[in-house]
């Protein structure tokens, strides 16, 4: 593969006087998992939303290279073009099921509707695909017609993962996918994410304040503080030999 799948250059975005992004650049290569870590309020979610075209930066560029190798300036795409690209090539997993699932739609519908948005119409095949994905994320396929609110928190996150991956995305944005779950449930979810990411060779941007999750999943880590990347490098290097004082605090769990 020649070149990064996603490249951001010198992103700036302020909310009033607050610099949420203050000159952030990054590259994400095909099949690479990059974790963005930092304490709450450091700008991680804002960065993810800018990279995914959901928020426009005040300056800077985001370039996405699609499956055909065509480069798109994400911040300049029309809403329709962004929606097309996002449906066909991206997946999203959020911390809250409210953001990542349609709570009034069955588990099977949550998975199937993403394929329908890409033109799939064969009801029987959609059900079969949805059942297969429920199995893959370790949910009893007999729960196909249940609403997500009948699921445990861990199951809701696994359903989000099925919904995100069913379309065969090349790039997945995850914002605190294990946040708010019990530790044992988190561990199971992280193992599942790790297995699927490796099997499907996904590029992933993982926002997390969980250092253990970053260590388990990420090839590279970016450390954010007050809208800036204060340290970046291979995951083992950043975690085992942090150079920046803030990373040292983060890794030693003082924060
Ligand atoms: P993180 O995800 O690292 O916790 P965020 O990206 O959500 O941080 O927020 C970064 C900073 O920007 C925070 O101080 C937050 O309060 C502020 N912020 C985020 N979104 C908005 C918004 N829509 N309007 C005003 N301030 C915002
Ligand atoms: Mg956040």
From TrEMBL:
GO terms for molecular function: ATP binding; ATP hydrolysis activity; lyase activity. InterPro entries: AAA+_ATPase, ABC_transporter-like_ATP-bd, ABC_transporter-like_CS, P-loop_NTPase, PhnK. GO terms for biological process: organic phosphonate catabolic process. Residues 6-251 form the ABC transporter domain. The keyword ATP-binding applies. Pfam families: ABC_tran. Keywords: ATP-binding, Lyase, Nucleotide-binding. PANTHER family: PHOSPHONATES UTILIZATION ATP-BINDING PROTEIN PHNK-RELATED (PTHR42764:SF1). This is Phosphonate C-P lyase system protein PhnK.
């Amino acid at each position: 593969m020649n070149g990064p799948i996603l490249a951001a250059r010198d992103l700036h975005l302020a909310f009033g006087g607050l610099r949420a992004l203050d000159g952030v650049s990054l590259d994400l290569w095909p099949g690479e998992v990059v974790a963005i870590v930092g304490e709450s309020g450091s700008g991680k979610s804002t960065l993810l939303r800018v990279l995914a075209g959901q928020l426009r930066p005040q300056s800077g560029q985001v370039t996405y290279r699609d499956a055909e190798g065509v480069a798109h300036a994400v911040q300049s795409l029309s809403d329709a073009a962004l929606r097309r690209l996002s449906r066909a090539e991206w997946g999203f997993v959020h911390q809250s099921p409210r953001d990542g699932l349609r709570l009034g739609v069955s588990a099977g519908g949550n998975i199937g509707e993403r394929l329908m948005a890409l033109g799939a119409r064969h009801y029987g095949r959609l059900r079969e695909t949805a059942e297969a994905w429920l199995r893959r994320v370790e949910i009893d396929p007999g729960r196909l017609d249940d609403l997500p609110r009948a699921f445990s928190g861990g199951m809701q996150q696994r359903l989000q993962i099925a919904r995100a991956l069913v379309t065969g995305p090349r790039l997945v944005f995850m914002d605190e996918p294990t946040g708010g779950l019990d530790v044992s449930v988190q561990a199971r979810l992280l193992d599942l994410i790790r297995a699927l990411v490796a099997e499907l060779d996904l590029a992933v941007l993982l926002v997390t304040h969980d250092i253990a999750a970053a260590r388990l999943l990420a090839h590279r880590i970016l450390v954010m503080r007050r809208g800036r990347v204060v340290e970046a490098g291979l995951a083992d290097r950043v975690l085992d030999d942090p150079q920046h004082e803030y990373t040292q605090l983060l890794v030693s769990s003082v924060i």
